[in-house]
Amino acid sequence: MSEKILHAVYDDDDKLIEAVKEIRTSKYSIEEIYTPFPVHGLDKAMGLEPTKLGILSFIYGCIGFGFSIFMMNYIMIVDWPQNIGGKPSFSYLENMPSFVPIMFELTVFFSAHLMVITFYLRSKLWPFKEAENPIPETTDDKFLIEIKFNGDGKALKAVIKKTDALKIKVIENKESK
Amino acid sequence: MYTFTKNIKIFSLSLIILGALGLGYGFYTAPNSVEEAKAMVSNSHGLEEKNDSHDNNKDHAISEDLHELNSHSLEEVSHDEHLLNQLQNRPWAALYVAALFFMMLALGTLAFYAIQRAAQAGWSPILFRVMEGITAYLLPGTLIILIILILSSMHLNHLFVWMDPEVVEHDKLLQGKSGYLNSPFLLGRAIFYILGWNLYRYFSRKFSLAQDKSNDISNHKKNFKISAGFLAFFIVTESMMSWDWIMSVDPHWFSTLFGWYVFASMMVSAITTIALVTIYLKSKGYLEKANHNHIHDLAKFMFGFSVFWAYLWFSQFMLIWYANFPEEVTYFITRIEDYNLPFFGMIALNFIFPLLLLMNSDYKRVNWFIVTTGIIILIGHYIDVFNMIMPATVGDQWFIGIPEISGILFFAGLFIYIVFNGISKASLEPSGDPLFKESEKFVY
Question: How many distinct structural domains can be found in chain A?
């Protein structure tokens, strides 16, 4: 296969975003971008679809909310009614204000934990996983764009040269990195 | 540069006239004697009494027995007088609730503005002139409150029971509080707060306008300094203001987080007002540099402060409900028994609606969505102030009728007139602000 990979390294997030726009207007497809921190507006510049994580977090929160109501009803009303501070121990509704902190906490707990787990599954992360970033500097202060291309890539290189890239590197075979 | 259009002028002036007429009607129809008050109540409650008469038969029998024991009981007389006071209070309370609500819109905007200044926020300078326009209402708004307080201390109404020397004479708790709760000290404090807030507003506006014309950023720096100072002054005086002007209508009851609770209500309605005025100006073709990124940020604040308000409301409610101390819990019992619909309805309006409507990030950029939610929030927070003042002043004789709606119309008209007049006084772009460029380019 003649498909090759080009790495363009940048040292500034503004330059990176400019470069991404430049590359996309020249109709090259960006494989992946590695950055040391979340770059504001990069998802839009890359044309990524909006994440559905937000909708999921709402659903997870609803699950937690429902679970907390079921749990407190079972513990405090059905299974073992307790008289605490003279509050009616036989009615969930009349005791509801004292359960609100628990409802809130479990909503947050479910939403947060299930979101993190979803995020790990979705981005295929697990403990002891080997890092995928081609150069370790992308965890420090460098930004790297990975572009797939066919042929000799002269045109692509010309495009990259126009941007303010720190260095350009072509990798013949993805496995040999 | 915005020009104060004739349409708005006519609209706001007609609101003022309508409101003034309605308030006048409210004062005119308030009863003058105990007999009139009793007649009014028996007329309006005729239907209700028929419905639950069989429930009350037993109570009536018992109370009639008691009445026979001390045939002309003192209690009955004082009860009737109390009823008279409540009915006489109603137009005053309607006036006071609306005056407070609109004054707090301006005060909350001023605090929000000072936060933007002190934090040197990059996103908001584009909206500074809108906020400055809204705070133009602060001076008239606070002066109206001061006048109402002076009239109360002259015993023209019974909004504050602790101002009545006869009541204090028979009340040990009020005697203990009289070192703080007395008319001269209350008025002195009110003048102190009003002076402080308006001085900040005056100088901040002055520096803001001067910055547009100057070549250096000295005015910006001065504004930063006085804003930081104002915020320290504000958070103390705002808390004390809410004790003095709101909490003291229930002089026996107290809550330590009441100042924060009022603050949350004030902030969310103020930010909503900023958003609504901005959207209005944009719809008229002004403020072209303010885009949906800025609206999105305002909507985030609306969402956040709505949740914050609910958090404080619930914190106050749950602690008192759980502890169940008689002197504290009466506050909520009157509200739940006599004000059930506004009390629980406001939680739906102020918390559940904004929570669900503004949760989605994309909806925070849709103007009609923000306007809808904003109107709900403003109605909800008017009812919040209503629930703070009415139970102690009007008791179970409340109704959202002609005096209440007229109060809203009157102050809404005044507010719109002064705010849009204020906005038309200066260029809508604080182009000299060193952060203006950043605000213009702001994304998200």
Answer: 2
State whether residue A87 sits within 8 Å of chain B by CB.
Answer: yes
DSSP secondary structure, B71-84, as one string: SS-HHHHHHHHHHH
In a domain, B81, yes or no: no
Same domain, residue pair A32 and A57:
no
Residue B73 in any domain: the answer is no
| A100 interface with B at CB cutoff 8 Å | yes
C-beta of residue B148 within 8 angstroms of C-beta of residue B176: no
Query: Nearest Cα to B30, choosing from B334, B424, B393, B284?
Result: B393
Strand, coil or helix: B347: helix
Check CB contact of B359 with chain A, cutoff 8 Å: yes
Residue B409 domain-assigned (yes or no): yes
Nearest CA in chain A to B317: A97
User: Taking each helix axis from N to C terminus, what angle separates B402-423 and B138-153, rounded to the nearest 10 degrees?
Assistant: 140
Q: Give the pLDDT confidence score for residue A175 in this predicted structure.
A: 53
- Which of B123, B312, B314, B358 is the best mutation test for A, with the most CBs of A within 10 A? B314
Q: Contacts of residue B359 in chain A, CB cutoff 8 Å?
A: 58
Residue A4, SS3 per DSSP: strand
Q: Is residue B168 part of a domain?
A: yes
Residues of B in contact with A103 (CB under 8 A): none
Domain region containing B432:
6-30+90-441
Does any domain span residue A32?
yes
pLDDT above 90 for B57 = no
Is the same domain home to A75 and A113?
yes
Residue B100's nearest CA partner among B275, B238, B236 is: B238
The reply to whether A136 touches chain B by the CB within 8 Å rule is: no
Mean pLDDT for B251-271 is 94
pLDDT tens digits for range A66-122: 999 999 999 988 998 888 777 777 888 888 888 999 999 999 999 999 999 999 998
| CB-based contact, B326 to chain A, within 8 Å | no
In a domain, A128, yes or no: no
For the cut 70, the answer to whether the pLDDT of residue B73 exceeds it is: no
A40–B contact, CB cutoff 8 A? yes
Specify the number of domains making up chain B.
1
Chain B residues touching A98 at Cβ < 8 A: 318, 322
Q: How many CB pairs below 8 Å do chains A and B form together?
A: 22
**What is the rounded distance in angstroms from the CA atom of residue B444 to the CA atom of residue B442?**
7
Task: Share the mean pLDDT of chain A.
Answer: 86
B317 touches A at CB < 8 Å: yes
Are A57 and A118 members of one domain?
yes
**Residue B149 and residue B153: Cα distance in Å, rounded?**
6
Residues A117 and A165 in one domain: no
Residue A9 lies in a domain: yes
CA distance A78 to A138: 56
Residues A113 and A158 in one domain: no
Interface test with A, best of B303, B313, B318 (most A CBs within 10 A): B318
Q: Which residues pair with B232 in a beta bridge?
A: none
Residue of B nearest to A95 (CA): B322
Can you give the pLDDT at residue B279?
95
Task: Report pTM.
Answer: 0.86
Expressed as residue numbers, the domain containing A171 is: 4-36+145-176
Which residues of chain B have a CB within 8 Å of the CB of A100? 314, 318
